[in-house]
Design goal:
Elements lengths: L1 H4 L3 E4 L5 H6 L7 E4 L9 E4 L2 E5 L4 H5 L2 H4 L2 H9 L3 H6 L2 H7 L6 H7 L3 E6 L2 E6 H4 E3 L2 E2 L6 E8 L5 E9 L8 E9 L4 E10 L6 E2 L1 H5 L4 E2 L2 H14 L10 H23 L9 E2 L3
Parallel strand pairs: 1-2, 10-15
Antiparallel strand pairs: 3-4, 4-9, 5-6, 5-9, 7-8, 10-11, 11-12, 12-13, 12-14
Bound molecules: flavin-adenine dinucleotide.
The site of flavin-adenine dinucleotide has 30 residues, from β1, α2, α7 and β9.
Length: 281
């Protein structure tokens, strides 16, 4: 249908980004193709060690999923997106396809090394999400391609992550966020780490120096501070109504430190609840 309707047609998933943009007349599609009636597009399934999440899976379904809860960083993210209304309608596929610089899913899925499976008239392809997002609101998808599935590799036994976003209130996008995934050799020694920042660049910022401060290191308070400082240096925020550049950089430092401490505790088997942080709480 997209091929027949031409480039001005758009697909409708949860409508939580597209419909507000249409109401503001910032998007004026010539036609909408509603994906909500296509069966078997919303699912969360474990397969060969990976978690497969169908594009039309709602944020709330991931929040409530026992399969997703085995990768707690997924729950951290899903449970904090906006409010129940948005979570009940918005989909992970729509979020990834929208590539909003303030979206919560992309930093988390990059930290997990997830792949985006798409489908179009020429067949399917799988692209690491770090390459799938090309720029703000821009992905590698062609005009007749759809996101079909997100594939998340199951983290190893001593691998754990955490995601914390800071928001002015529930139904708004984050001011800044940090996703951290660590793989430990034992309680103290870090084998691998990923630190990805949201809302502080046009695309998620992969903080390579912050990860390098942890990888192959004994995790001391000093190493944690160095990682948080390196994340702060990697952030490239813009000043806006959410705060100044300096304020957002400081937020990144604090959020990275807190997410890292939660990820480390989870890697030791501790049950740690983290959620999005709100102004005044
Ligand atoms: C008040 C409010 C607050 C919000 N706060 C947050 C927040 O804090 N964090 C956050 O991450 N998000 C937030 N959102 C956005 C929400 O998560 C959206 O659900 C999400 O960004 C888009 O998903 P959707 O299913 O609603 O997509 P839609 O709005 O239906 O579509 C978005 C775009 O993606 C395209 N698209 C949709 N599905 C596919 C597909 N399978 N393949 C190819 N293209 C597709 C559409 O054509 C459209 O261009 C908020 C939204 C609102 C209204």
């Amino acid at each position: 249908m997209l091929g027949q309707l031409g480039e001005d047609a758009k697909v409708l998933a949860g409508g939580q980004s597209l419909i507000p943009l249409m109401k503001l007349r910032l998007a004026r599609p010539s036609a909408l193709v509603d994906l909500n009636h296509i069966p078997r597009t919303a699912y969360i399934e474990a397969q060969n060690g990976d978690l497969r999440i169908g594009a039309m899976t709602r944020h709330a379904e991931i929040e409530d999923s026992p399969a997703a809860a085995r990768i707690p960083i997924l729950h951290d993210c899903a449970a904090g997106i906006a409010d129940p209304q948005v979570r009940n309608m918005g989909t992970i596929g729509g979020s990834v396809a929208e590539a909003d610089p303030h979206g919560d899913w992309a930093p988390v899925l990059i930290a997990l090394g997830a792949e985006v499976e798409s489908i179009g008239p020429a067949g399917g392809r799988s692209v690491p999400i770090s390459q799938f997002i090309k720029d703000a609101f821009t992905t590698v998808l062609g005009p007749t391609e759809l996101v079909r599935e997100i594939r998340v590799p199951r983290p190893g036994a001593r691998s754990a992550g955490a995601y914390i976003a800071f928001k002015r209130c529930a139904p708004v996008y984050p001011t800044a966020s940090a996703a951290v995934q660590v793989t430990m050799l034992d309680d103290d020694f870090c084998q691998d780490a990923k630190v990805v920042l949201g809302s502080v660049g046009l695309t998620p910022v992969i903080a390579t120096e912050a990860a390098a401060a942890l990888r192959g290191q004994a995790i001391t308070p000093h190493a944690i501070e160095r990682a948080a400082e390196a994340a702060m240096a990697a952030a490239d925020p813009q000043a806006d109504l959410r705060g100044s550049v300096d304020y957002k950089r400081l937020l990144v430092q604090v959020l990275t430190r807190r997410a890292l401490l939660a990820a480390l505790a989870r890697s030791r088997g501790e049950k740690v609840e983290v959620s999005h942080e709100y102004v005044g709480r």
